[in-house]
Amino acid sequence: MALEDICNLRNSCLHQNWLPASPATSFLMTDCYNLGLKGPKKSQRNNEVPLQFFIPPLLNSTSFLNRSPSSYFQGNPPVTVRRPFPLSHGTTTLGFVFQGGVIAAADTRASAGGLVACPEVEKINPIHSHLVVTSSGSGADCMLWERILTREIRLYQLRHKRCLSISGTAKLLSFMLHPFKGTDVCVALTLCGWDKELIYVCSDGARLQGNIFSVGSGSPYAYGVLDRELSWSLSNEEAISLAREAVFRATHRDAYSGNNVDLFHITAQGWHQRKRENLKEEYYRDMKKRGLF
Amino acid sequence: MEYLIGIQGPDFVLVAADNVAASSIIQMKHDYDKMFKLSEKILLLCVGEAGDTVQFAEYIQKNVQLYKMRNGYELSPAAAANFTRKNLADYLRSRTPYHVNLLLAGYDDTDGPGLFYMDYLSSLAKAPFAAHGYGAFLTLSILDRYYRPDLTRDEAVDLLKKCIEELNKRFILNLPSFTVRLIDKEGIHDLEKLTHGAK
To answer: From 3.40.50.10730, 3.30.2130.10, 3.60.20.10, 3.40.50.720, which CATH number describes the B4-195 domain?
Structure first.
């Protein structure tokens, strides 16, 4: 480092390529706005010695120094990774409770801005034999948090020799997500359990138990269909066809939902997955039935 | 969007909260209870940011119960209110402030009924009547006009109904039903839910 200073190497732009700026030095020592091209900050009181010499480069010092950069640089926000594309919570997922158990339905489109990133995503994933979770929000975050939840539930089961209740699962998930509140983590999960329980958990911190939930950009359209026709005493077939209809109408109107519909039926015996259906065919069938074709 | 109201009488406190749990433009629940029972005679009404309300209120609730377990007697409403305010204040200038607005209502066997208004900046005021939310702008003047310190229970419920009528008339958002509870020396009593029109 002394040699670098003597050779005035730090002032050259080559320095940026040769030595990747470690987070510690870039936060504390360099002038963020000039990207370090001005050189390290020098101490005013100690003969212009570069400031980094005053903070010993201990093995663990990077984690300490990274902890609160804002306290060193008032007004300089911590560096976050930019998203490569605009996020939108394009989804229609729904769940409702009726006499025959719980139905969970969702579309299968993953959108990234205006692009259909994947037309065949599985938005409903089982956590264990009697608990299914529908996801919406950021796909990556949902995938990760579902895995974390599955792991925690399995650990609980192994440690306590019994399954954690749905409300316990929801509370656990909500408390695990709480430290990330205010960051860009975006998950909105609906836990659908065997005990006729439906709980909505979202990364904002909301945890709501209810009989009917629909989440995502297509949810207002789904609510429109569900609120009118849902009742406790539906038969299994009626409930399944209502869920399909609600997702279908939502995917018709919402640009960010579409492709197929997944349907799970959860009863006391466990979850049962229905074959995935393409909604394009459903649209033509519906038009034909109504005599509009 | 959310609405809380409390009215203190000579030997009771009447509190009401709306029942809507909303997420952007959708009402996700119509029967959500915003009141948290801190002890046999203390209720905490909590509105504000989605996760913060439940997290903070449950934290206070469990700590008040822990105090009772450790010391054998319960915190008084004033002590609970000051404890809550201290926690809000401690978190206010941290990296995770709680954005919650609270009403704490309780009955103390020595001091009588008490209603405490707290907001997200951790201000605390003991008040004869108080309200939170946009609805407060519409109803505080009604409370100012008709409140008397010697209200009976029925008169307090009528005053509450006047406030809710005003909300239904002038407030742009639909708040279809309100949970109503009354605290007196016997404890917490659930009163009839106040709904708007036929359901």
So the answer is: 3.60.20.10
The C-alpha angle A9, A36, A61, rounded to 5 degrees, equals: 95
How much is the pTM?
A: 0.75
A134 strand-pairing partners: A124, A190
Q: Which of B41, B7, B10 is nearest to B186 (CA)?
A: B41
The interface predicted TM-score of the complex, written ipTM, equals: 0.83
Give a yes or no: residue A188 inside a domain.
Answer: yes
- A86 part of a folded domain: no
CATH number of A187's domain: 3.60.20.10
Contact state of B96 with A207 under an 8 Å Cβ cutoff: no
When CB atoms are compared, the residue of A202, A205, A213 closest to B55 is A205
Domain ranges of chain B: 4-195
Nearest to B26 among A177, A181, A223 (CB): A223
pLDDT 10s digits, B39-55: 999 999 999 998 899 99
Instruction: pLDDT band for A292, please (50, 70, 90 cuts).
Output: confident
How do residues A205-251 score in pLDDT, each as one tens digit?
889 999 999 999 888 899 988 998 899 999 999 999 999 999 999 99
Listed residue (A176, A269, A169, A268) closest to B55, CA to CA: A176
pLDDT score for A266: 94
Q: Is residue A267 annotated as part of the catalytic site, yes or no?
A: no
Integer Cα distance of B54 and B74 in angstroms = 22
Please tell me the total count of domains within chain A.
1
